[in-house]
Amino acid sequence: MAGSAGATAAQQLYGPNPDLPEPQRGLLPDMEVLEPAEWGDRQPTVPDGYSITAIATDLKIPRQTLVLPNGDILVAEGSGGNAPKLKPKDFIAGIIKAKGKSSVEGGDRLTLLRDANGDGTYEEQTVFADNLNAPYGLALIDNALYVANQDALVRFDYEEGQTRASGPPEVVTQLPAEINHHWTKAMTASPDGQYLYVGIGSNSNITERGMEAEVNRAEVWEINADTGAHRPYATGLRNPTALTFQPDTDTLWAVVNERDELGPDLVPDYLTSVQEGGFYGWPYSYWGQHVDPRVKPENPELVESAIAPDYSLGSHVAPLGIAFSTPQVGGEYAEGVFVGEHGSWNRKDPVGYKVSFVRFENGHPTGDPVDFVSGFLTDDGRALGRPVGVTVAPDGAVIIADDLTNAVWRVTRDDAGTPQDTAADDAPSAADNAPAPAADAATDDAARPESEPATPENDAGTPDTQPTASESQTTTET
Q1: Which residues, 6+ apart, have CB-to-CB distance to 477 below 8 Å?
Q2: Neighbouring residues of 350: CB distance < 8 A, sequence distance ≥ 6
Q3: Strand partners, 198
Q4: pLDDT value at position 437?
Q5: Rounded to an integer, what distance in angstroms lies between the CA atom of residue 138 and that of residue 189?
Q6: pLDDT tens-digit profile of 247-290?
């Protein structure tokens, strides 16, 4: 179903200075959600010299992951949102998007994966904590495990090696949850472990619920990890779906899902450093000072202050994960960021549905993104999987949550552990880049389309499609 402007040829605008097309507006946006397909004997595609394995299957909508100090992996599982439908297009969009979903319900839990003997097979899969409320962001500071539910930041006591939380979590602070059009709460810890940074998405595509519904939304909050005291750190970010700190710096980075219904090639989703006190345009403008004519009244003074993002990822790719690489990853992927792209729902020619790599040079993104994990689409236009959170483990393994397959994938270098790896082992690891007290949250919303209240734009529910049986691991839930 297409808007009156029709679909343009696939046009992806990458890099720091994208040449933006003119807006296109119609009665309805282009909508195309891909129906799920089964993997069978297939696997995602990775570069030569790397291998991929499903280390966990049969999960309940995995979103983000966190690698713990002993190598265990925590997986946040859930699906949230409760925004009511506003217009006929919302009902139409809901019908179309339902094609890419299944009856699997979000787990509202944390699952722990353990590879006890270090052979790459995670033979233990246990429930670490349950009865949560659409958990998403994860971070560890000293002996405190923080979880960003859709309505509150909570804290568990944590001892290395434990497989089950010792008790219910303590609420650190409430998070905006009324309506929750964009419900996911991305999170990371500051390098010194003093603060947590939480992304809070807007309550609409472009203020159709009124500005009163946007109070404390489209922001990144800075939260004192001990007291819960908080303040807006940056504003005007429509839906910041994953956050992390650049290694060896105090620079916060985010991936952001931008607005819809300006055509298949607007507005680019982006990767950007997040400046303290910075304003990034939403809702009044996009990509700096490009005014959005749909927003009334206008705010030219605020638009003048809008910061253009660092790097365009392309329009509607729906980035939900971000993780800085390390030398242990190796090859041409040793310096830069991995981005989990959940995939488009509102353009005829699908984009996203992969994990991209953006190379960094002198601390800044450069060049075009390249595919790191792809092969999530079939030749006949169906989806095998949809990447969400991305995490880089200290050993250089890249961990990917896939909320369509209901699996966690692990990508490793084939020659890891060989003599050439020794130099990388001496270089700072992902754990080294986090402060002694803090580990970055697994990157991560499934952002959800504006027209689908109950499920994030980048959150298609997970269909009952799984990797091959040989990839599945033993499950023992407690």
Answers
A1: 125, 126, 127
A2: 32, 34, 343, 344, 377, 381
A3: 187, 221
A4: 38
A5: 9
A6: 999 999 999 999 999 999 999 999 999 999 999 999 999 999 99
3-state secondary structure the chain: CCCCCCCCCCCCCCECCCCCCCCCCCCCCCCCCCCECCCCCCCCECCCCEEEEEEECCCCCEEEEEECCCCCEEEEECCCCCCCCCCHHHHHHHHHHHHHCCCCCCCCEEEEEECCCCCCCCCEEEEEECCCCCCCEEEEECCEEEEECCCEEEEEECCCCCCCCCCCCEEEEECCCCCCCCCCCCEEECCCCCEEEEEECCCCCCCCCCHHHHCCCCEEEEEECCCCCEEEEEECCCCEEEEEECCCCCCEEEEECCCCCCCCCCCEEEEEEECCCCECCCCCEECCCEECCCCCCCCHHHHHCCCCCCEEEEECCCEEEEEECCHHHCHHHCCEEEEEECCCCCCCCCCCCEEEEEEEECCEECCCCEEEEECCECCCCCECCCEEEEEECCCCCEEEEECCCCEEEEEEECCCCCCHHHHHHHCCCHHHHCCCCEECCCECCCCCCCCCCCCCCCCCCCCCCCCCHHHCCCCCCC
The Cα diameter of the chain in Å comes to 63
User: Which residue, chain included where needed, has tokens 């983000």?
Assistant: 64
Tell me which residue has tokens 């009511």: 84
HSE-up (13 A, CA, CB side) for residue 268: 25
Nearest to 56 by CA among 41, 74, 71: 74
* Torsion sign over Cα 354, 71, 220, 272: negative
**pLDDT tens-digit readout, 376-388:** 999 999 999 999 9
Query: Whole-model pTM?
Result: 0.86
Q: What is the pLDDT of residue 32?
A: 78
How far is residue 7's CA from residue 352's CA, in Å, rounded to a whole number?
17
